[in-house]
Amino acid sequence: MENMKLPAYRAAWTRTQSHAAAARLDLSGIYPPIATPFTAMEDVDYQKLEENLHRYAKIPFKGLVVQGSNGEYPYLTEEERVEVVRTVRRSLPTGKLLMAGSGCESTGATVQLTEKMAAAGADAVLVVTPCFYKGKMDSCAMIHHFSKVADSSPVPVVLYSVPANTGLELPLDAVLQLSQHPNILGIKDSGGDITRIGLIVHKTKTQDFQVLAGSAGFLMAAYCVGAVGGVCALANVLGRELCELERLCVSGRWEEARVLQQRFIEPNAAVTRKLGVPALKQAMEWFGFHGGACRSPLQPLTEAETQQLRQDFSSNGWL
């Protein structure tokens, strides 16, 4: 582990511009991890994507996450992943951040895709933990992987821990070590363990390391322990309302925040761990966005699942 210590990071560090950007980029705020609309033939529907983007432009998001889990990135080709980012960059209003998912299973592929995402207009990249050989993805492997990616990335890197999809959590000791890298800006933590999120904030105080909650279900709790924002699937549907929750938390209006937070818990669970991306895309249709079908092998909701989804929104006053 000796070569992983901070001096080695800095010795390997050559991209001073990116380092300066990492020090400067303020992630605080709400981001929807946008969905990818498809045609009936399962091609990416760029026109519908642009129509969604025009609607999102009217909501006070900090920016957009493109090619997160809700964008079905494992089902897109590399060319499609880059082209979707390019399309979003063209439509995105000035001043909004574009965070692009560039994680692949191998370090080399992640380095290459990261460079392509930066060239396509990403302000930062969101890099998911490699997970296929999960038994071997210990702290040492993770530190090595993310350090290599951050060393060569032209833009700042945000770590991405999403155990519900990958089956593993980025270990706390690895997060703390990586937080010292000058081009690693923060983490999107979707695990929902508030003690862990609070501890990451506490232990990285001196690093200017920014923590984003990875779900709307624990957004207020994450703000309470020092998170600066959230990347929330539910923001694809209830974006304005989640930005209002952010405003209440930041201004310390906790009673009002609590009431709003409680109304998000069930619909959020429905579009994430319970029913997943097909449910998110169905809910988007109800709220006037283009959701549509997922790419195979993801299947559409059954009639019973659709009724359950509607119930989770309507019983909380959203439909």
Automatic annotation (TrEMBL):
EC number(s) reported in the record: 4.1.3.16
Function as written in the Swiss-Prot or TrEMBL entry: Catalyzes the final step in the metabolic pathway of hydroxyproline.
InterPro entries: Aldolase_TIM, DapA-like, Schiff_base-form_aldolases_AS
Chain residues that bind pyruvate: V231
Gene name, Swiss-Prot/TrEMBL: HOGA1
Catalytic activity: (4S)-4-hydroxy-2-oxoglutarate = glyoxylate + pyruvate; (4R)-4-hydroxy-2-oxoglutarate = glyoxylate + pyruvate
Molecular function via GO: (R,S)-4-hydroxy-2-oxoglutarate aldolase activity; 4-hydroxy-tetrahydrodipicolinate synthase activity
Catalytic-site annotation from UniProt: Y160, K188
Keyword hit for Disulfide bond: no
Record-given protein name: 4-hydroxy-2-oxoglutarate aldolase, mitochondrial
Xref: SMART domains: DHDPS
Pfam families from the UniProt entry: DHDPS (PF00701)
Family (UniProt): Belongs to the DapA family.
Keyword Lyase: yes
Organism in which the protein naturally occurs: Amphiprion ocellaris
Alphabetical GO biological process terms: glyoxylate catabolic process
